[in-house]
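> call design_seq(struct)
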């Protein structure tokens, strides 16, 4: 009687599995078996993923050192859009395919950015704190000024991908003028939805509100720094639902302390979770949420389906629908086409 080979799909970051869950039926039909665990260090992660053909990845760093210890691994699927935690060069060198879910949480993050925009511009959180302190008195309205009407103001979007485009539609419905900066988007794409594309240095002085929608890459690290704040309008608002490290938080703290900015709405920080006390949390005109902009039942259902289906594709020897490193297709060491291939010393 022939032995049955276990084709493992592993997740090493939580004993209960991903928060969104995985569709075990889809993976089982492709011949896969799920294994969940929580690793406390590299050795434990290697042990949990040692026999995996597919690795599901959330926030844990996927390094060359780690990948070299996984000889059976054919592909990994990121639980979300960004792949900044994955060493794509190492994965490609080793012939491992990498997939993500680019359509994940577009509506949710756009809504969250809009929510932060409103919370900061209308000083909703500050007003809530004051009300809870029993300061509902005549004249309190004057103490909330300055507040400006949003209609007629300019929203500058740094990055004009799917989430930013969805936010642009929401903002235009509120009467905001929308401009954007993105070197990877065609002018025609922006013009088709009534948005003007500009270089970043031209966008910053025009925008009353700057909202960030860019990935974390070497090029975008601290893109919004002291030079950027110096270009921004006096009293402008910064919104960040992208990645914490794209903002230099020391420069942001200084701009807020000096009154250059009117406020900030942040769903992400450079270091998460932040150490308390945190300087940005001391400002009344800063609203900080706990990196939950992607959350909704609908978004998690979409994520569960897409991640499970792409894991199944890899198990079947197919390239996943959202392949992040397409150059791996043509490499002789590509493990998806050649399961026995390995790169020595990669």
């Amino acid at each position: 009687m022939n032995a049955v080979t276990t084709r493992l799909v592993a997740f090493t970051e939580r004993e209960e599995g991903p928060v969104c869950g995985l569709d075990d039926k889809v993976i089982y039909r492709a011949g896969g078996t799920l294994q969940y665990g929580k690793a406390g260090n590299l050795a434990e992660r290697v042990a949990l993923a040692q026999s995996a053909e597919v690795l599901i990845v959330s926030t844990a760093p996927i390094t060359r050192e780690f990948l070299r210890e996984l000889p059976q691994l054919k592909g990994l699927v990121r639980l979300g859009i960004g792949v900044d935690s994955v060493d794509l060069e190492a994965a490609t060198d080793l012939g491992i395919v990498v997939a993500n879910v680019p359509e994940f949480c577009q509506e949710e993050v756009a809504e969250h950015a809009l929510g932060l925009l409103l919370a900061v511009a209308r000083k909703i959180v500050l007003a809530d704190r004051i009300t809870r302190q029993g300061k509902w008195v005549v004249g309190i309205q004057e103490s909330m000024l300055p507040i400006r009407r949003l209609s007629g103001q300019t929203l500058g979007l740094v990055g004009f991908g799917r989430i930013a485009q969805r936010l642009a539609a929401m903002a235009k419905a509120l009467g905001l003028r929308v401009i954007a900066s993105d070197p990877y988007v065609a002018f025609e794409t922006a013009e088709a939805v009534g948005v003007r594309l500009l270089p970043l240095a031209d966008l910053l002085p025009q925008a009353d509100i700057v909202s960030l929608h860019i990935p974390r890459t070497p090029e975008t690290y601290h893109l919004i720094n002291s030079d950027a704040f110096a270009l921004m309008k006096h009293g402008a608002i910064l919104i960040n639902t992208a990645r914490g490290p794209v903002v230099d938080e020391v420069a942001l703290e200084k701009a807020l302390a000096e009154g250059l900015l009117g406020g900030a709405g942040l769903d992400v920080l450079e270091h998460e979770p932040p150490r308390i006390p945190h300087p940005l949390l001391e400002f009344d005109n800063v609203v900080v949420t706990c990196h939950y902009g992607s959350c909704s039942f609908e978004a998690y259902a979409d994520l569960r389906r897409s991640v499970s289906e792409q894991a199944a594709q890899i198990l079947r020897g197919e390239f996943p629908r959202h392949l992040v490193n397409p150059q791996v297709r043509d490499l002789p060491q590509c493990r998806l086409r050649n399961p026995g291939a390995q790169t020595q010393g990669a």
